[in-house]
Design goal:
The protein is mostly beta strands. It has a single domain, classed as Porin, CATH 2.40.160. Helix content is 10%, strand content 56%. It is built from two helices and eleven strands; from the N terminus they run αβββββββββββα. It has an eleven-stranded mixed β-barrel. The N and C termini lie far apart (50 Å).
Length: 271
């Protein structure tokens, strides 16, 4: 992944961080006092494969668990399961463009309303890298087009925009490679027009994440992080405290074949 990064002026990165902080503080004035709190656990498997020097595909399979107003035990209630297919295009060393199609089975999600709500989602996003020796700063622009079932059982269109800034720093090396631990931190704001699933506020939520990961091999890495999401709502705000586990595989199928499926012998001579 590091081969796509190059240096750019530090001033640009500093301006981006400053703009982002001001934006968050501006929306912070909408926060209210009364808040419902939820504790959650999420897990995700990411399987990626390089198609060419420019193109790559990826598959996400994940689920989330949470306490609910009627059940305090976190792992007792599976609130969401999903599968996402991605295509990535590395346009330049600084820019990556991506698109995905996803299906979310929202079974008991507090944000939506504690009712079953299947969802189909199309995502378009751009990722821009600010790379320096010793750390990486990136910003992600994401637009989501959601086809979501409401409480009456009818599907409705929902649109959402997400803007994220992410910091990633290797701890025992200057670069990301096998055997390296790394620290990650990111903050993301979600903006949304009026929609029944999220109340009437244009500022949908703020999502903060901090954690770390370890690159076990070039084809396997694991991340563990704490995620805090604050959702300002019309009557009662919502606060999610989530532990997130992500396991990433690269070239999983081809590596499995090489390891467990014997190769056909070559040059076998006939009698």
């Amino acid at each position: 992944m590091s081969r796509y990064f190059k240096k750019i002026k530090v001033n640009s990165a500093n301006k981006l961080i400053l703009f982002y902080i001001i934006l968050i503080l501006t929306f912070g004035s909408e926060l209210k006092a009364q808040t419902d709190k939820f504790t959650q656990f999420s897990n995700e498997f990411q399987i990626s494969r390089a198609i060419s020097d420019k193109w790559a595909s990826e598959l996400w399979i994940g689920s989330a668990f949470s306490n609910t107003p009627t059940e305090n035990r976190i792992l007792k209630t599976n609130i969401q399961r999903y599968i996402v297919t991605w295509m990535h295009y590395h346009y330049t060393p600084r820019w990556r463009f991506s698109s995905s199609l996803a299906y979310y089975y929202n079974k008991d999600v507090p944000d939506i309303g504690q009712y079953k709500s299947p969802e189909y989602r199309l995502t378009l996003q751009g990722l821009y890298y600010f790379h320096k020796i010793g750390y990486t700063l990136s910003t992600r622009m994401r637009g989501e087009f959601r086809y979501l079932m409401n409480e009456e059982g009818d599907f409705e269109d929902n649109y959402r925009y997400r803007q994220m800034v992410k910091f990633l720093k290797p701890l025992n090396s200057k670069f990301l490679r096998q055997g390296v631990f790394y620290l990650l931190a990111d903050d993301e704001i979600w903006l949304k027009p009026n929609a029944k699933s999220t109340g009437l506020t244009f500022f949908d939520r703020n999502r903060f994440e901090i954690g770390g990961g370890y690159i076990i091999t070039d084809d396997l890495q694991v991340e563990l992080s704490y995620v805090n999401e604050f959702l300002p709502r019309d009557d009662v705000n919502q606060l999610y405290n989530c532990v997130s586990l992500t396991i990433s595989f690269n070239n999983l199928i081809s590596n499995f074949k090489k390891r467990f499926i014997p190769q056909s012998s070559e040059g076998v001579q006939s009698d």
